[in-house]
Amino acid sequence: MERLAPMRLYSLSKRHFVLVFVVFLVCFALTVFIGVAGPDCVVTRTIGWLILQRIYLACVFCSPPLNTYNQQLWLTCVMQAEHSNIRDFQQPFEINVELKGVVHDATEVPINKMHQKLRKLDCSPTKCEEIIVLHLGYLNYTQYRVKVSFGGLENITYDLRVKFVWKTYNQTFSQVEIWFRFVFVVLTFMVTCMFAHSLRKFSMRDWGIEQKWMSILLPLLLLYNDPFFPLSFLVNSWFPGTLDAFFQALFLSSLLLFWLCVYHGIRVQGERKCLTFYLPKLIIVGLLWLSAVTLGIWQTVNELQDPTYQYKVDIGNFQGMKVFFLVVVALYILYLIFLVVRACSELKNMPYSDLRLRFLTALTFVVLVISVVILYLRFGAKALQNNFVAELSTHYQNYLPAEFLSFYGLLNFYLYTLAFVYSPSKNALYDIQLKDNPAFSMLNDSDDEVIYRSDYEDMPLQNGRAIKATAKYQDESDSD
Predict the structure, then answer these.
(1) pLDDT value at position 429?
(2) pLDDT in tens, 211-226
(3) I want to staple 79 with a disulfide (CB 3.0 to 4.6 A). Which of 128, 131, 275, 282 is the partner?
(4) Domain segments of the chain: what residues?
(5) Which numeric CATH code is attached to 43-169?
(6) For the ranges 37-51, 190-204, 209-223, 385-399, which has the lowest average pLDDT?
(7) Which of the following CATH numbers is that of domain 8-39+172-427: 3.10.20.30, 1.20.1070.10, 1.10.10.60, 1.20.120.530?
């Protein structure tokens, strides 16, 4: 017999289920409202339109004053053709960038030598595609001076205008982000402690697979919210940002692994062997995690050596990485769909296992739909183009923090909701003690029957089953 600690999920009525979803959506809507009402994520400073000569143009200019609350710095350029009757065209050209840092006494410190990059000018009759000139993942100086020159545009027979744009994170938004993360760190710590406290009276061997996974995901959610995030504003280093990206990849990969294990584990009773149960899932999710970490490290290392680096420069290796990542994602989705369909077909006649399955599927489906909408609004339909990694951090629809705050709030409230429904109810220990009594013993083979079902299936409540079992036991004693 497999004995499991009960869940609050089993004691909830339909009205309670509706209330759980309503509270979840209200909390998520609150984060969206805060994001919409909050400050812009990115502030820009434009250096006016310059006439780009066909042979060569060089210009030198300084960035706006910066501090650690600006977090990162981008320099982009936008070109526009003077002639109004042109057609779509593409033109390769060269861009040379020299970057220097300005210290307090106005001394300029060279950051990198002159870098020559090949870029492609992609223009339509109205405008040309924005080009990322350089990107700094952290700010080591209060101001930067850059020299940009163009070459290879002599084949163009009409004049071009060029506009340079500095982009940094808004200082007010950085303060909002600090407080937002801090609040979720505190909430996650409280939820983790309350969930662990609710399971303290049950042996870990009696925990259900959802409860075991929640005891792993909640501490990882604490890292996902990154309690070390304020270090980014105290230390001028690439390490805090890389650590934050590592924590995010770790949590998201664990969440993907959680879905695979739970949908498979609900219908697999008894011992779940590591080789046959966990290993295939670890391989699939591990490849996704490895791809995300590799891309992050790849970008960080190259940008430290060359702030003008983009994935377009190394397009061959990047295409291979992108294809590999998409193949693994497709494999994961097919495997997850297979587990969900098989679980639904096998557990549809088991009331309590079916309840676990339906609740997790419904809530996860809502979260996935909202996540897809957020990602589409943030990155657009061109998120998987050749240069999508270099442009992810610069593309904010309407420059509002709603996309950032809503995604963090969505994942946090999703885990809080699961922790609530998977935690034992207040009278769970009393029910277990009744089952340990031989007079009220209900021995069966499945999770449903071990916890809640008995030979008296016509009695819907546990107390009713216990009373009926007690009456039967007393009648047999009187007859003896």
Answers:
(1) 52
(2) 999 999 999 999 999 9
(3) 128
(4) 8-39+172-427, 43-169
(5) 2.60.120
(6) 385-399
(7) 1.20.1070.10
Residue among 157, 148, 155, 132 nearest 82 (CA): 157
- pLDDT digit string, tens, across residues 280-325: 899 999 999 988 888 778 777 777 777 877 655 555 566 777 788 8
234 or 114, higher pLDDT:
234
Of the candidate ranges 78-87, 125-134, 192-201, the one whose mean pLDDT is the lowest: 78-87
What would the pLDDT profile of 430-443 be if each residue is shown by its tens digit?
444 444 444 333 33
